[in-house]
Amino acid sequence: MTIVKDFAFASGGIFWKIFDRTKFESKDLRHQVLILFALVLICWLPLAGLSFFQLGWTNFYHLFLRDIATQVRFLIVLPILLVSRRSLNKSFNQTISFFYKTKIVDDGNKQSFENVLKWLMKWSNSKLVDVILLILVYSAFYFQENSQINNSNTYAPWHLVDNKLTVAGWWYLLLSLPVLQMLLYRWLYTILLWIIFLRKISKIDLHLSALHPDGVGGLGFLQYTQLSFFPVAFAFSALTAGVLNNMIMFSGISVQDYKVAIGSVLIFVFLLFIFPLLLLLPKLAQVYRQYFMLYSLEAWPCARKYEEELKSYYQTGEEKPDASWHVDLIGSFEKTRDMKTILIDKLLLVAFIAAVVLPFLPVIAQQVPLKEIIINLLGKIMG
User: Fold this and answer.
1) Environment class of residue 179 by beta-carbon count within 10 Å: exposed (0-12), middle (13-18) or buried (19+)?
2) Which of 206, 7, 245 is nearest to 122 (CA)?
3) Is the pLDDT of residue 295 over 90?
4) CB within 8 A of 136, min separation 6: which ones?
5) Residue 162: which H helix or E strand, with range?
6) Alpha helix ranges (H) inside the chain
7) Phi, then psi, of 161 in degrees rounded to 5
8) Is the model's pLDDT at 149 over the cut of 50?
9) Closest CA to 351 of 261, 253, 227
């Protein structure tokens, strides 16, 4: 059965509807780059231009150009979050199609599975969620003005001149930052939907098999869907690394003081991008038990019969019993015994650890030699 319906659950919401008016995904690569370039310039270029005219070259260099956090937000994170949607939607559609093609979903559980998909599409396009996200974005304006700008020496040091918001600061708070925040909140919501989706399908009677060669009951393809979130994990980590870089540059703190913060990012990424696959552990454990007990039960009559034939052979020496079934049964038992109940493998762990670590390398390298960092990382990974 071929699924032609589009289950692009990462495309819902007012932000993506506005973005889709550019027909970004139907354009060729050159036009896609131009659209991305234009959107990034709308958020970043006015900040640079207005800051330059108001601050002058010296302060513009020291306060804006050296503000790595702002450059990362709009020149790296924003484009990554914009282009990552396509690969996730494509991967998710392939995943849904795979459920049907492999008969993991068939007539027996099709209705339950499609009810989950209907729920997913309903909430991915929920207008209520759009309203909540917009409230979150623009209510944050108060906190930006009263909290973060008061600490602008590390957050965005070009915001203030004589303790007053610059024109660039107003553009940042009213347009640039809300666009980025809306995109971030939308991605967090998309990840939440993915987590709930996995939870819901874990409750369905999926037709899995302990004998599947992927060693995880036939659900190994979900690992590649999870890997589609790698750019998003990288972008989240890059945001934190950019702020930490500002703290080091403008406040003179040591990166050693922020070991806990870096560790917290790693835990955060683990919870968002690794933990979801653990939701399928009960389902895989059920498949493991089911097949083990099934083969154990079905083996007994064969084993008893073989014992009788073997005993008769030893007594009469007439006909040696066929033991090929025994070899096949042992193979089935071994495959079932070796089946894993956790979808997380070394590739996933290395990928998402890299997504966290890579953005922090330039930050740490300011105080720790890069060669030493690489040697320590390789030692931990290989060891």
Assistant:
1) middle
2) 7
3) no
4) 181, 185
5) none
6) 14-20, 29-59, 68-72, 78-101, 110-124, 127-143, 152-155, 167-171, 177-201, 221-227, 230-251, 259-273, 281-316, 324-338, 346-364, 370-382
7) -130, 120
8) no
9) 227
Average pLDDT over every residue of 339-366 = 86
Q: Report the half-sphere exposure of 75 (CA within 13 A, side-chain side).
A: 12
Tally Cβ neighbours within 10 Å of residue 234.
Answer: 22
pLDDT at 14: 78
Rounded Cα–Cα distance for residues 116 and 89 (Å): 17
Q: How far apart are CA 261 and CA 243, in angstroms?
A: 11
| Cβ proximity of 370 and 361 under 8 Å | yes
Phi-psi map region of 103: left, alpha, beta (phi>0 left; psi -120 to 50 alpha): left
What is the CB neighbour count within 10 angstroms for residue 76? 18
Which residue is it, tokens 């089946």? 339
Whole-structure pTM value: 0.83
The H-or-E segment that residue 65 falls in is: none
Residue 269: which pLDDT band, with cuts at 50, 70 and 90? confident
Query: What angle (nearest 5°) sits at the alpha carbon of residue 217, between those of residues 213 and 218?
Result: 70
Name the band, by pLDDT with cuts 50, 70 and 90, for residue 329. low
Within 8 A by CB and 6+ apart from 150, the residues are none
**Nearest 5°: phi and psi at 304?**
-65, -45
- CA 229 from centroid of its chain's CA atoms: 3
- Look-up of token digits 């001149």: 161
Residue located via tokens 């990362």: 72
| Burial class of 350 by CB neighbour count within 10 A (0 to 12, 13 to 18, 19+) | exposed
Please write the tens of the pLDDT for every residue from 205-214.
Answer: 999 988 888 8
* Residue type (1 letter), 129: V
Interatomic CA distance for residues 87 and 104, integer angstroms:
23
Within a 13 Å sphere around the CA of 127, how many CA atoms are in the beta-carbon half?
A: 0
Residue with tokens 């006909």: 319
Query: How many other C-beta atoms are found inside a 10 Å radius of the C-beta of residue 228?
Result: 21
